[in-house]
Amino acid sequence: MRGRGVYLDQSMQTEAHPAKPSSFDAHHAPEKELLSDCVHCGFCLPACPTYVLWGEEMDSPRGRIYMMAKAAQGEAPLDQNFRTHMDNCLGCMACMTACPSGVQYNNLIESTRAQIERNIPRDTTDSLFRKLIFAIFPYPTRLRLMALPLLIYQRSGLQSLIRASGILNILPQRLAAMEALLPPVPTHFTWTMPPKVDAATAKKRGRIGMLTGCVQQVFFSHVNAATARVLSAEGFDVIIPPSQPCCGALMIHSGLEDQAAAMARNLIALFEAADVDSIVINAAGCGSTMKEYGHLLRDDREWATRAQAFSKKCKDITEILSSVPSMAPRHPLPIRIAYHDACHLRHAQGIHQQPRKLLSEIPQLEVAEIAESSLCCGSAGVYNLLQPEPAQQLGDRKVGHLLDTHSQAVVSANPGCLLQLMSGLRRRGEDTLPAFHMVELLDASIRGLSAEQILNGKKNLNL
Q1: Phi/psi zone of residue 255: left (φ > 0), alpha (ψ -120 to 50 degrees), beta?
Q2: Which of 272, 211, 219 lies closest to 246, judged by CA?
Q3: Reduced to 3 states, what is the DSSP secondary structure of residue 207?
Q4: Which pairing describes strands 366-368 and 336-339: parallel, antiparallel, or unpaired?
Q5: How far apart are the C-alpha atoms of 180 and 327, rounded to whole Å?
Q6: Which residues, listed in sequence order, are joined to residue 239 by a DSSP beta bridge?
Q7: Cβ proximity of 297 and 264 under 8 Å
Q8: pLDDT tens, residue order, the chain (463 aa)
Q9: H or E element: which one contains 174?
């Protein structure tokens, strides 16, 4: 039941104290009904990464909702202080898992961030850095153009020299963070696209379209290849539409609503033409966004119904594989791994047991649980680039828990998390500990790769 909170109690508005105009503009302002769902119980506080770090009420979900509600009542301006507290939010949605009242914090923070981008100017440096990120990361072709110089930078030894020299310590934090999070560039750096159709190698179970992603498509093509192989081995025809646009996740999470909506329309049209039963995603942030296209395009008469139908087809790779009995034999992998929950998988999509179920089907694989498993690692899309200091604190905290498990490898189901954890491991001098997407281990087990092949210096399992 809604309306249990006190922030927006309309009975308090009298003729003597008339309602003030909202500080938000009229376009998709945070909904008052959603704001009033919050009953201020505080269950979200220990789940919130920034509250855990700083203990500051306004940097908790409850505090941010309070500020949103005050702005909606016209009692707080949309100023730099308001923006700072909203920018500090990682958008990990752990508060939604913890909330007993079902507060839709995801819709509230995304609506609020769109208001911020329209109504609160940023300083020149911040604005230019954000424009740089959003001009490159959502565009695979531009990422490929960057791949060759990055490959030379990494393979020539220049990267090692720069890191050892201490030069990065005098760079602005954001630039240093961007360098620290560079993924290893594959030697082929993916100029060629994956096959359009990967035909099922077992009894056919369905026809699945696969999202290739942006950064994923260029720097994690081995994860896409593993995803296609596993689905094919499990009886699915895998359709990979060419020239896929960005899903808009980075945009919607950063308040760039119009750009995200345009990307969503393009992706919907592309997969409609592919005529698939389901759409598989192996990046948690992309999956959570694509499942919410119906909300993003809710006011678009032409696209709202199509967006809802599209979102119903979107499934994480772990959802699809755990929904059917395994067909392909799993070979033993006698390895101890630490499994890290991606926030947009566990909290935004509610997917927690499925990855564990799939990993448990691999003989002799030992899966260690991590302390504070529901707390964000600090990746959060591009948060670790925009807010490098708290992101590094969270990353170091997570890596400490990973190392406490004494595992031989780190496994997650999201590329951004893997990059964040690899960066944290390097700061601790543990960069020899490999990090894998969980679908890579499933693929390795199905293909019969040995533990030695997996652990002995392999940067990925696309063997």
Answers
A1: left
A2: 211
A3: strand
A4: parallel
A5: 40
A6: 197, 209
A7: yes
A8: 344 444 444 444 545 556 789 999 999 999 999 999 999 999 999 999 999 999 999 999 999 999 999 999 999 999 999 999 999 999 999 999 999 999 999 999 999 999 999 999 999 999 999 999 999 999 988 988 888 888 898 888 898 899 888 888 888 889 888 888 888 887 765 444 455 566 666 678 899 999 999 888 888 988 999 999 999 999 999 999 988 989 999 999 999 999 999 999 999 999 999 999 999 999 999 999 999 999 999 999 999 999 999 999 999 999 999 999 999 999 999 999 999 999 999 999 999 999 999 999 999 999 999 999 999 999 998 999 999 999 999 999 999 999 999 999 999 989 899 999 999 999 998 888 899 999 999 999 999 998 888 887 554 444 3
A9: helix 173-180
Closest by CA position to 225, among listed 237, 235, 208, 210: 210
Integer Cα distance of 391 and 404 in angstroms? 20
Report strand pairing: 197-198 vs 236-239.
antiparallel
Contact at 8 Å (CB) between 282 and 224? yes
Strand, coil or helix: 59? helix
Strand-by-strand arrangement of the 197-198 sheet: 197-198, 236-239, 206-210, 278-281, 314-316
How far apart are alpha carbons 179 and 419 in whole angstroms?
11
Kindly report the length of the chain: 463
The residues with which 368 forms a beta bridge, in sequence order, are: 338
Q: How far apart are CA 460 and CA 452, in angstroms?
A: 13
Count of alpha carbons within 13 angstroms of residue 133, beta-carbon side: 20
- Are 181 and 417 in contact, with CB atoms under 8 Å apart? no
Q: How many helices (H) and strands (E) does the chain have?
A: 25, 9
Do 364 and 408 touch, CB atoms closer than 8 A?
no
Q: CB neighbours of 200 closer than 8 A, spacing ≥ 6?
A: 232, 235, 236, 237, 238
Question: Which amino acid, residue 12?
Answer: M
Alpha-carbon distances of 37 from 17, 65, 178, 292, rounded to whole Å = 24, 10, 38, 20
Listed residue (217, 195, 211, 223) closest to 139, CA to CA:
217
